[in-house]
Design goal:
single chain; alpha+beta; globular
């Protein structure tokens, strides 16, 4: 499942329909511009508190991804704890691939 999540996020990144990092994800959530959020499996409690609570309050689904190092590596970046997805179709695919 985590490989599918990383693959889908890679497509979204190339299409410029995802935002990487906690600050960017929170900003887009506050503006109502995300269709789902992917949190690294090992995201810190502070990240979970800041991102997950806001996402759930906004009705945005949260998907558990691979560990931050693996998530970042799959996207050609350093460790990434949070990824926001703006594309509704991509978000549906991520939620479906996570079993949710």
């Amino acid at each position: 499942m985590t490989d599918a999540v990383t693959r889908l996020l890679g497509l979204g990144l190339r299409a410029r329909r995802v935002v990487l990092g906690v600050a960017g994800v929170r900003a887009r959530l506050q503006r109502g511009r995300l269709a789902c959020v992917v949190l690294a499996a090992d995201a810190s409690p502070r990240t979970r508190d800041k991102v997950e609570r806001l996402a759930l309050a906004r009705g945005v689904p949260v998907v558990r991804g691979p560990a931050a190092e693996r998530l970042g590596a799959g996207l050609g970046r350093a460790a990434v704890q949070a990824v926001g997805v703006a594309d509704a179709g991509l978000a549906r695919g991520l939620v479906a691939s996570s079993g949710g």
